Amino acid sequence: MSIPIISEADRLRREVLAYVIKAVKAGTYADIDRIPIMMRPKGQPFSRCCIYKDRAALRYRAMSALGYRVEDETDELKTLASYAEDIATNPPATDPFLTIFEDACSACMESQIMVTNMCRGCLARPCTNVCPRKAIQVRNGRARISHELCINCGKCADVCRYHAIIQVPLACADACPVGAIGKTDDGRVTVDHEKCIRCGKCIKACPFAAIMQSNQVAHVVRAIAEGRKVIALVAPAINGFFPTEPGRLYGALRKIGFADVYEVAIGGDDTAIAEAEEWAERKAAGAPFMTTSCCPAWIECVERHIPEIKPYVSSTPTPMAFADRRAKKDHPDALTVFIGPCMAKRTEAHKHGSPDYVITAEEIGAWLMAENIQLDAVEPEPPAVAGTQYGAEFAISGGVANAVAHYLPEGVAKPTVFKINGLNKKNLALLRVFAKTKKAPAEIIEVMVCSGGCVAGPCAISTQEEATKTIQARRPQDFQA
Length: 481
Hints:
The chain is of the alpha/beta class. Helix content is about 40%, strand content about 10%.
């Protein structure tokens, strides 16, 4: 059974990761500098302006797979083999984990409204009437937009009956909910790390794979190869990505060297129980509302953009934190590794000092590919600690609020719920209003930065719809440890 590949960019990332994982596990790096040439041999098609730019991009991608940031390179002649050898003594790059290979950026045009050749210069001219800035005029039988006046509201595109006006997006910037993406003087992408909330939406949106993340998988592979005891903390979303029953995935994780597997769904139950008790206490004290706290990108957003809402944010630790505590208590001598679809979890782990590493679903997919492990051929094995369906559905929009309601103390009325299902500029403004007025449309505000929940995270390896269905269809025996 193969692991899904959503796009060619996914295939490229996974192939680089697989090559790097093989080299690190073997402990021999003689061929690691040949990765760009093996993936882009002479005479084969290339995706950028020339084969050499493709190879340069692949080199930097391999560098990020080894745990480095492209921006931290000070010696362009340093080999990938040298970087690989250095992971024995150097920890992976710390926050911020976003890294950009500027030369891979296609310098896409800024987001703007454009009039196409479909324009007929119609008599009705709804575009000119609806424009709030009077930026559209019809000249010589065709609508013309003054971009000095245009504010990219898109109203003209909405009302054009010929669909002659289109809104051309800047993929990475439009995906960013907090305006952290900008342009350099030569049009290349840049990230304001003071504004960035580490959600990773720009990585998923960039069609040229120019925005990357510094990975931690090489350090985990090395730790296992050296005989360290390593515990896998598997996020609920992971079970929605791999097209097999959870037990086969857990068996595969043990096969590649993890000593044991803990479902972070059990941490979801712990979080829900604690948040339910916290809400009961806050309600008794007269609090108007409380937002959830399990999404680390949301917490970064609060810290960086809406500090005034902080008093209304739950102080309960995340499922990852609770699961890590359990694993560390049972295995005090082990390294713990969270496996999920979220890049912001790396920032959370970096801030709190645990778990030891965070790797992604994509990295696990590449690892299984590197080991040539077919999930269908793996014997199912139970996790050491399993969660409930309530904990598992933390990965889905509405799942956190549903779990909190389920675990409310006896005698506490079920709270009303309002879902922020995907953070965008509109929802961000709405949350600011909640903080300013100290009023909200419900008592519990569930905030998920990714639309659909964690199953739609930037490092997911399946569609949100497929992953949601898989998690919701789990059977009772899947939760038995």
